[in-house]
Amino acid sequence: MISDQLAHEILRLFAVEKWSQGAIARELRLHHSVVARVLSQTCPTPPKPQHSKLAAWLPLIEDTLAKYPTACASRIFEMAVERGHRGAPSHFRAFVAQYRPRKSTEAFIRLRTLPGEQGQVDWGHFGKVKVGRAERKLVAFVMVLSYSRRIFLRFGYDIGMAGFLDGHQRGLEHFGGVPRVLLYDNLKSAVLERVGVAIRMHPTMLNLAGHYGYEPRPVGVARGNEKGRVERSIRFIRNSFFAAREWSDLDDLNAQALAWCDGLAADRRWPEDHSRTVRDAILHEQSSLMALPADRFACADRREVHSQKTPYVRYDLNDYSVPFRLVQRTLTVFATPEEVRVVDGQEVVAVHVRSYDKHAQIEDPAHLEGLLAHKHGAKRHRTQDRLIEAVPQTRELLVLLAGRGDGLGRAVSQMMRLLERYGMADFTEAVALAHAANTPHPNNLRLLLEKIRHRRGLPEPMLAPVVTHPRLRDLHVRPHALTDYDRLLAGKSRTPKENDHDD
Questions:
Q1: Using CB atoms within 10 A of its CB, is residue 274 exposed (0-12), middle (13-18) or buried (19+)?
Q2: CA separation (Å) from 344 to 246, 347, 350, 369?
Q3: Do 347 and 399 fall into the same domain?
Q4: pLDDT digits (tens, 9 = 90+) for 276-303
Q5: 390 and 332 in one domain?
Q6: Among the four residues 44, 160, 171, 478, which has the most C-beta atoms within 10 Å?
Q7: Is the Cβ–Cβ distance between 448 and 434 less than 8 Å?
Q8: In this structure, how many other beta carbons lie within 10 angstroms of the beta carbon of residue 114?
Q9: Which residue did the predictor score with more confidence, 112 or 462?
């Protein structure tokens, strides 16, 4: 908002002094849209110029804009050139902008809903996050009860159907009931096709609505005001919750989001009555919600996948292991935001924690044990792959060793033992030093690791005893109290003195 005095000055400079809108904006240090707004409110149709060279083209401009209000100025300029105009296009476009019909301001009726009648759903986008080698979009599923303005918020990296269904299930369980209508934007998870008033809903969306007993209702195209409560809630989340917030991982962020929903967001003023809070309105609306069904809806994303010659199936940029007997088979993946299940017919053959990394191999050691026993040479290659995946710089060392004619099998085993003994950070530093000095042998790596530990003032790491015999692994040894050994040592120390006394 600007003062009346400043608005009067804008009008005086434009009408009396004949200044352009750009000159007025620069002189008064205002945005050009503010100047345009003041002029459009006071004089919607600017006076026709009397001495402009473009005045002769005004009938063409007005007739064209009357028939085609959205015609671009460059096209009108081309029409004028075809009729003999020889002026500059930039000046002509600025002239057309003064006479383009302005959109009339639309007024809206404030919508009021009954308790338990309506909820609104939408996604909120919060930039990108680095997850391992992948860059993921951080999104938030937001569900709002229209009457009480109660908010449910959950962040994730999955904007597909699995995350969409999981957000509904968690949100309705958080509310403790189901509203009769849920409003959606025209996102692909809800609306597959729309032609005018004819709408084809996503079949999975209809199954979800049928399970919980609510009506899914898409809003009009480009009519965000129809679900303004969830739109304002997303803006409230950006400013009140997400801004300047620190979090370690997705679980930590969602834990903070849930505490915020039950705390600050619930204690804010209720817009319908400022003497009450949203928490008070929630208590009033709770009894009007429909009851939750007895069983939960299956929220997994179902995909048909094909395993290749290696015992892995790919889902969302990552490879998940399966039993080696299932290579070159068509399998089914059921993925949720938390886990990935692989099914062969009716049998669940693999269950993994879902990874949001990129080109990662998520493995169950039991899936590969049989393959390693079946193929004699697979163990060395398997260890080599694990070593390179853990520390990619070791690939260059192995290439140098192979070029010198050294055997890789023993070298890979020694490097893996050094990695397990000294840890990732020290081993990576030693590999970089070995590569720079062109000394790739594992013995040199061991010496470098010892120097690194000595420089940091750290002792050599202890080696854990390795027990291979199955009977010894299952043997339980009861530990003795150290005081028993102290008494034994004390007895041995007294014996020589007693003998000396007898002599």
A1: exposed
A2: 42, 5, 9, 20
A3: no
A4: 999 999 999 999 999 999 999 988 888 9
A5: no
A6: 171
A7: yes
A8: 12
A9: 112
Assigned domain for 293 exists: no
Tell me, yes or no, whether 217 lies in a domain: yes
The chain-wide mean pLDDT, for the chain, equals 84
Look at residue 502 and tell me if it is in a domain.
Answer: no
CA 75 to chain centre: 42
Could you tell me which of 43, 36, 31 has the C-alpha nearest to residue 97? Answer: 36
Residue 125: its H or E element: strand 118-131
How far apart, in whole angstroms, are the C-alpha atoms of residue 144 and residue 232?
10
Supply the pTM of this predicted model: 0.60
Number of separate domains in the chain: 4
- Nearest by Cα to 99 from 139, 133, 71: 71
- Phi, psi dihedral angles at 408 (to 5 degrees): -85, -25
Distance between CA atoms of 135 and 356, rounded to whole angstroms? 9
Rounded Cα distance, 87 and 179, in Å: 62
Instruction: Say if residue 130 is in the same domain as residue 228.
Output: yes
Cβ partners under 8 Å of residue 132, min gap 6 = 355, 356, 357, 358, 360
CA 83 to chain centre: 55
Residues 209 and 186: their CA atoms lie apart, in Å, by 16
| Structural domain for 349, as ranges | 301-373
